[in-house]
Amino acid sequence: MTQNDQAVQLAAGDVVLVDAARPVTYFGNDTSARWLSLHLPRRSLVSHLGFEPQGGPCRRSRTPAGRLLSHLAMDALRGDGSTSPADSFTQLAIYDLIGALFAPSGSSSGSRSSDKLFTRICGVVREGFSDPDFGPFEVAAEAGISLRYVHRLFTERGFTCSGFIYSLRLDHAAHLLRRRGLLDTGRPLSEIAYACGFRDYAHFARKFRDKLGCSPGAYAGHGQSAEAGTVRASTDECALSAHDVRSQAT
After folding, report:
1. Domains in the chain, CATH or no CATH each
2. Does residue 108 register a pLDDT over 50?
3. In the chain, fewer beta carbons within 10 Å around the N or the C end?
4. Helix, strand or coil for residue 197?
5. Is-above-0.70 flag for pTM?
């Protein structure tokens, strides 16, 4: 088979990636050979993988991911009713196996696609962190990728999705508490906690103290000079998070 100026000789069980939008040529003398094709939607595949797969590469059947993908496709072909490529879980499994087989190694284009996807995911988190029910699963559903891939994108950058969500919640809480102290609004602290995505005030207070070193009430009641020192420490943390995200988008 040839595509994109790449020629590969295929054996039974091998997996080859074909770009349906570009010319492809097949050669073969074995009339008994059978081809099994899985047609995958490009947009959802790229969104799930985080990189743009190119037609032409081949992976041999002896790789674990290649064997699993071949078995999965053959089981679906037998039509025993237990699985179908259209099933959502089967589709995600196929996407994950293709990602394991064809992920670019050290590819700058793959890295740029991954960074772009990560930036989009951070935007999803910023839109939803104030919902108490919002977590990594909701991030994955909103972004249209697997939960495992969401976790991988964050761990590759040295932190977790849950940690990022909590960081945004606490940064927002610090902002609201500073505003409460400056304007002397008397807004209940429990209301601020809920507005930042916490249902349990005790949980909120514990997380807040762990990050900022004082209780929410003490933070809101600081004088201007004491508050400035605390705010600078919090701002440094926010700036680091923002820098991390921006650097991924470059």
Report:
1. 2-103 (no CATH), 106-250 (1.10.10.60)
2. no
3. C
4. coil
5. no
